[in-house]
Amino acid sequence: MYKVYDHTHYGHMEPAVPFSKIYENEIFDEIIEYIDNLNHKDKIYFVIKNNKILFDTTQKIYESPDGGKTVYERIINCKKRKQI
Description:
mainly beta
């Protein structure tokens, strides 16, 4: 079962950690679709399976299909990308 958690910080300058479960599904593609539809602007979300963090929404991939003229950013494993 894959689970999506939001985050919290336990103190000033402490790293983000998973806090409360907001979604779960047995199908990884459904988890990715859910993550793609969330607003990531100020939130960090963690994807967890078997009590291990698979990835969080701060992990990004940068792509440039035209050799550097246009650069896109997307969350690891996700399909939705935005131009930067």
